[in-house]
Design brief:
- This protein has about 170 residues and is mainly α.
- The protein has helices at about 1-20, 40, 50-70, 75-90, 105-110, 110-135, 140-165.
- The longest helix has 27 residues, at about 140-165.
């Protein structure tokens, strides 16, 4: 249990530092921003306690909010994804797999992993940018931010998964 918490804490710091120092400074066409830290919540195993997953998501989102001065946007959106992730994973995990089943490109296969990841990342981006804009007066810019950020985030996650699978 202690090693699991240390592993999660290390990943937590890795995703936070990568987002704050590198990825948060990328704004393609003033609308597409990689939100790679969403991947942290999607990686949790099937048997991980739901309350702990909510806490990890909240604190990661809170720290991202602190660094970007976005009060509660990332925290609220990430807690929503953390609340949905265990139930969404059950739809894709093999029924005969172990309780410690972790979703990845290797364990789920390419097709299932794509269908597992796309809705979670898309929902995160929709909620995040809806809260950020808070009104839909500029629907075109909102849609460009949602679609652009979803695509660039998914490309980063899939690239990371492919590199991780070659270990």
């Amino acid at each position: 249990m202690a090693t699991d918490i240390m592993k999660q804490a290390g990943l937590f710091l890795l995703f936070l530092v990568a987002q704050v120092l590198v990825l948060g400074r990328i704004h393609l066409f003033h609308c597409a921003t990689p939100l790679f830290y969403v991947y942290f919540v999607t990686m949790f195993a099937r048997n991980y306690p739901k309350w702990a997953l909510l806490l990890w998501g909240f604190f990661l989102g809170l720290l991202v909010d602190v660094f970007y001065n976005t009060p509660g946007l990332a925290a609220g959106s990430l807690v929503l994804i953390a609340a949905i992730q265990p139930y969404w994973l059950e739809l894709f995990a093999p029924h005969d797999s172990a309780d410690s089943f972790e979703p990845s490109l290797r364990t789920l296969g390419p097709t299932k992993y794509v269908w597992y990841l796309i809705p979670l990342v898309s929902l995160y981006c929709v909620v995040f940018f809806s809260l950020e804009f808070f009104n839909l007066s500029d629907m075109k810019h909102w849609a460009m931010c949602v679609v652009g950020s979803t695509i660039i985030t998914l490309l980063l996650i899939f690239t990371f998964e492919i590199a991780r699978g070659k270990e």
